[in-house]
Design brief:
- The structure is a single chain.
- The chain is an alpha+beta fold.
- It has four domains: about 90 residues, no CATH class; about 55 residues, no CATH class; about 120 residues, Cysteine Rich Protein, CATH 2.10.110; about 30 residues, no CATH class.
- Helices cover about 15% and strands about 20% of the residues.
- The strands form seven sheets. The protein has a three-stranded mixed sheet with strand order 1-2-3. A three-stranded antiparallel sheet has the order 8-11-12.
- The chain starts with a strand and ends with a helix.
- This is LMCD1 protein.
Amino acid sequence: EAFPAVCPVLFQMSGRGVPCLRCRGLCTGFEPHSWRKICKSCKCSQEEHGLSSELDDDLKVGLLLSGSRHSSLTARLKGGDGARIYKRNRMIVTNPNVSGKDPTFDTITYEWAPPGLTQKLAMQYMELVPPELQPVAGTEGAHTRAATAQLPLTGGAGSAWSSVSTRIPFQLHRAAKPASIRRCQPAFPGQTGSAHQPGHGAVTENPAEEGGGHGETVHLTPLTAPCPPQLCDSCHQPVPGDCPVVYADRAGYSRQWHPGCFVCCRCSEPLVDLIYFWKSGAAWCGRHYCESLRPRCTGCDEIIFSEDYQQVEGLAWHNKHFACLECETLLMGKPFTLANASLLCTTCSQSRV
């Protein structure tokens, strides 16, 4: 299976002139910086200019899942040098509206839904997600779902990495241990995947193994023994037996979460499409999992692999990016000020007063 051809140089979208969603009319339009992921004009991020597209996000997830046991969720990108794209599971729900004289139909499109579920179970899952986070097309929830922040394309050290291969930056996400990607299960309490269930929900693999994971739905087999009262692993509130919960095989099937409670342990953001990374007994988003392994440069927003870098007040910079935000003067060995995680030389700092 192949998707339509796109430019082989993936993800290189300048977006020049795109208005800022934050500054509105104050910004003259996106002006790309040579290495910072911000607008040179207003200093807002690329995300605040809405530069990430669905195609970008699906390519990122495709890179992450390609070569894993979940590669069936991807398709080969025609003309993309062997790259694979994520086959996102959208859900379209049509409800009859009989309030008027002639019946009509209301259609709701969810930009993502857990794959492999019946529509009834998928709708139950969505109803347990806070309304503002439900990925309904055209809403803030669909925008929040974007993978840009949690799965940044360039987890590697800048152009030196991307010039080798667009696949290399994602290897960091699986760097702690070379384990394959896993998937967690939306299911009812007391149910586990038959593919993983030799006994009462026992896991044949080591649940403490660290690395990446992804939301999964497999054929569900109810446990034959009575199911004791279940609690959400995050909020510690009961989970009703008739409501779906999320299982993560790296955590073991004795732990489950409400759909709205399966979040990154660092940023508390819902995990995009149930993609997670497991470390120290908790689920992480890709961004913060990377940062738990290596520091991230505050200037270029990429992971620092060198042991020679600059640190100030808990923040880190590549040596070549330890520069003034305004005039780009390198500040190593020079006086500077730090304001809102931005470096300023003394001249630019005084001009702001």
